[in-house]
Amino acid sequence: MDVIKRLPNEVETALSVSSLRNLPVSFCETLFGRGVLAEYGDSALVNRPGDPIRIALILSGKLRLYYENADGKRLTICRLEKGDLAGVVSLASESNTLYAEAEGVTRLWVIPKESLEETLYKDVNAASVVISELGRHLEKLVGEWIAFAFSTVEERILRYLNGHRKNREPVRISQQQLADEIGTAREVVTRALRKLNQNGVIITDKKGIRLL
Prior knowledge:
Layout: H1 9-16, H2 25-32, E1 36-40, E2 45-47, E3 54-68, E4 74-80, E5 85-86, E6 99-112, H3 113-122, H4 124-149, H5 153-164, H6 175-182, H7 186-198, E7 202-205, E8 208-211
Antiparallel strand pairs: 1-6, 2-6, 3-4, 3-5, 3-6, 7-8
Helix pairs in contact: 3-4, 6-7
Domain HTH crp-type: 151-212
Organism: Leptospira ilyithenensis
Pfam family, one: cNMP_binding
């Protein structure tokens, strides 16, 4: 694959807000110069379990990573945003184990896994930065799982709502989507929302769910 001598402005902007921003310019140009642009519409599946590992710098939009069991029940693992490097957690694997779904129009700068591995072998300092990025992802995942494991359904719902409301506006989300986010059944979410409503913590209406 040919190497682009100068990275597109969109890639440079994403790198400037990334934990990779301190990498040597020559390293970034070599690694990301082998990338290609990929764009996905809202709710499009970017990766499925079993797909080959791809490394991607998020240029805009978000990726929701989630697990789905044999019964179709889903659990959101985390979200990646502009400047995050998707795929680094799976570097040691041959294929994906999670689904990745675009939230909003999402643009990625995709580089081959082999290119990253080859470049890291040649530059110890760059490898250290990428390992730090991997550690950041893992720390974020552990934090999410700790919060998930030791909280009630009501607490998980409130945590989600607090993290997604903007300017105190109602959060627009269906009960099934909310169940997928927190890893439970829709019927359980229905009961929990009713309880929170009765306790005066939230109001649910056609506009969404509003925290009081």
